[in-house]
Automatic annotation (TrEMBL):
SUPFAM superfamilies linked: Periplasmic binding protein-like II
Protein name from the UniProt record: ABC transporter substrate-binding protein
One Pfam family here: SBP_bac_1
Keyword Translocase: no
PANTHER family the UniProt entry points to: ARABINOSE-BINDING PROTEIN-RELATED, POLYGALACTURONAN_RHAMNOGALACTURONAN-BINDING PROTEIN YTCQ
Organism (species): Nonomuraea roseola
Keywords, sorted A to Z: Cell membrane, Lipoprotein, Membrane, Palmitate, Signal, Transport
Family: Belongs to the bacterial solute-binding protein 1 family.
Keyword Repressor (UniProt): no
């Protein structure tokens, strides 16, 4: 499921998370009798395309740490946080688990995470890109280690462009260029759509930035996205529905609808993340990527994932060792690069340069070019509720139930309530 379209189920209350911190971990503790330590790791990004890659990293870690067994557990993103929160509340939290940047603040604020510096004796571990490491600090403590990052780019089907006689996208494209091309590429009789960009939170905050707007006030206490720039951004998304991209009814709640549409050769342009590269290796047509078009400015979404440890784990040192290995070891970095499993947040540029050697897609440089204009998601304590509220109101506008202006006004009111 794509990161742009997948949304976790409603979050449990932060108070529940905090209460759970006093409960024990379900970790099997065999170290007392000289046996191995079993360390549970829960992840959403490995399955289904990178389970074998994760197995490679686990095997290398266990070879270096023969007294530790890492047991991997996976769940789809749309189920992951519900399961994680339930396990924390029930006292069966995994020792280590994956957290994305957007949800990190909720867990850190609730007291659910182990201060990794307290077991490592190192509050600023070396080897990471500075910005990535700081993204997972909270109130001066390192509660997670950055494990990967990825960007969103514009995928396009070269054959559909050639067939329609439309020039391929370039890094200088604007929304108007994209719209003009999408209209020419759309052929509903043939089941071909010119564009796909989900109408939801993750796309809105980014297009808002492209339009020159801001999601929250400078002090973070008030929603400011129901502005002229916000209306322009939301209109840009909504205007595609039913014209150059499928409607909500046509999608029908089908999982990975956009992924399958692109793979079938029926989608000309697709706003999605670089985590899709490995799954497109064998499609029977030529495709490439380019930095997403902007409006008054360029702005690319960048997603960070991390490895955190439960505050209740009985094996803090082992948990830290695994988190450090998974996030910054040479084995982990090269495995991610070779398999196109996002990118490691390491400071060694020579490691990242290897990413460009893979010939598909040809324009991998766009991944690094997109980092020149980053749009990070707004983050609040009640993160999931905010994301759901914005997505719900935008969906109402996309379905024609309310106007864009009404949708943003309602969404802003909900977000203001969440901000308290």
């Amino acid at each position: 499921m794509t990161k742009s379209t997948r949304l976790a189920a409603a979050a449990l209350a932060t108070a529940v998370l905090a209460t759970a911190c006093s409960q024990g971990s379900a970790t099997r503790d065999t170290s007392a009798d000289g046996g191995k330590v079993t360390l549970r790791y829960f992840t959403f990004s490995a399955a289904p395309d990178h389970v074998k890659d994760l197995d490679t990293i686990v095997a290398a870690f266990e070879k270096e740490n023969p007294k530790v067994d890492v047991v991997v557990e996976t769940a789809p993103y749309d189920q992951y946080f519900t399961k994680l929160q339930t396990s924390i509340a029930g006292g069966t939290a995994p020792d280590t688990f994956e957290l994305n940047y957007e949800n990190f603040v909720t867990y850190a604020s609730a007291g659910s995470l182990l201060d990794l510096g307290s077991v490592a004796g190192d509050s600023a571990p070396a080897g990471y890109a500075k910005e990535s490491l700081e993204a997972f600090r909270h109130e001066g403590k390192q509660y997670a280690l950055p494990a990967s990052f990825s960007t969103v780019v514009l995928f396009y089907n070269k054959e559909l462009f050639k067939k329609a006689g439309v020039a391929e996208p370039t890094a200088s494209w604007t929304w108007k260029d994209e719209q003009a091309a999408a209209e020419k590429l759309t052929d509903k009789k043939a089941g071909v759509f010119g564009d796909f960009q989900p109408v939801q939170f993750f796309e809105f905050y980014k297009t808002l930035k492209q339009a020159g707007g801001e999601f929250l006030s400078a002090d973070g206490k008030k929603a400011t996205f129901n502005s002229p720039e916000g209306i322009k951004a939301a209109t840009w998304l909504v205007s595609k529905v039913g014209k150059t991209m499928p409607t909500e009814a046509e999608i029908g709640g089908t999982a990975d609808y956009d992924t399958n549409l692109f793979k079938s050769g029926k989608l000309a342009m697709w706003h999605n993340g670089i985590w899709q590269f490995s799954g497109l290796k064998d499609v029977p047509f030529e495709w490439d990527v380019v930095v997403e078009p902007g409006d008054t400015a360029k702005a690319s979404a960048v997603f960070h994932n991390s490895v955190a440890a439960s505050k209740t784990t009985r094996h803090g040192k082992e948990a830290y060792a695994w988190a450090k290995f998974l996030s910054s070891s040479n084995v982990a970095a090269t495995t991610r690069i070779q398999s196109s499993w996002e990118l490691p947040p390491v400071s060694d540029q020579a490691v990242l340069d290897g990413y460009l050697k893979d010939p598909k897609p040809a324009n991998r440089q766009a991944v690094f070019d997109s980092l020149q204009s980053i749009a990070l998601p707004p983050v609040i304590k009640r993160q999931q509720e905010m994301q759901d509220a914005v997505t719900q109101e935008l969906s109402n506008a996309a379905a024609g139930r309310v106007s864009v202006e009404e949708a943003l006004k309602a969404a802003a009111a909900k977000v203001d309530e969440l901000l308290g």
